[in-house]
Amino acid sequence: MARKKRGKPHEEENGEAWLLPYSDLMTLLLALFIALFAISQTDQTKLKAMSQAFSAAFNMGGPSFFDAMGPNPGRMAEIPFDEDKGNSAYIQENQALTEIQKELEEYIEANNLQDQLSTQLQEDGLMIRIKERALFPSGSAELVGESQRIAPVIAGLLATIPERVVVSGHTDNVPINTPQYPSNWELSSSRAMNFMKFIIAQDKRLNPQRFSAIGYSEYRPLADNATDAGRSQNRRVEVFIARNYRFNPKEGVTENKDGTGGGAPSPRTSIQGTNSTPGTNGVQGTGDNSQVGATGGPTAGGKAYTMPPALASQPAQ
Asked: Which CATH architecture has domain 88-311?
């Protein structure tokens, strides 16, 4: 009996066998890319809509794989809300202080105040130094007319930034002994306090909580008190704008533990005014919310003062 020959398999059967695993592979790859896209997004509304669309398309039923995606609360708790982005915060703050210094230097040059005002951008912040004769008579803490030109400009600059401001008074080593000022401590403290309050009164945008006043007496000299020129240089008031951020090449921008830039030097004497609030580095803020003498805006010589365009107002924080 002859054997029946088996027919050769159709080529179509062999040629179509790969389609099933190929389609499964494409489906898995599509799901993978969609999952990666969804992981990179934090929009829960879009994620939920995508989950519902896939569940309906594949008719899976039950909980969807995408339901478990999105931010993990446990993991997010370990990540700081304000993520450190390198030194960008330090750079932005430094640019703002540099711009303020530039504007003030232009004002000094335009008004020939080089012998009365000076600025210095330091590691801890921006220092503005004002000679005694530009603000006070000798041996007194009463502001003179020249301060009407200087205070509004400084107030306008300070209103555009949120940093802390420390106003400090300094004297030479010549003793003083009057009923009002028994020593240079009282004189330097009164000068710092009076000028600080006068600055705050120039611009209603300024928050008194940002300000502190310090009296250093004769103990922070810039020059030798043995000469008249040295003593004149030491009699001054300083307005210090303290940085909030410090440059750290290893760890990026860091903020001091007390929430400040640590810019102000340690005080020898602290001034405390009405409703005082603790300052930084042991300095007592004045907290004086009174606006005595305030004009509702900067003034110069009793007339309204128009700020330069670069000093456009932005509410201080």
From this structure: 2-Layer Sandwich (3.30)
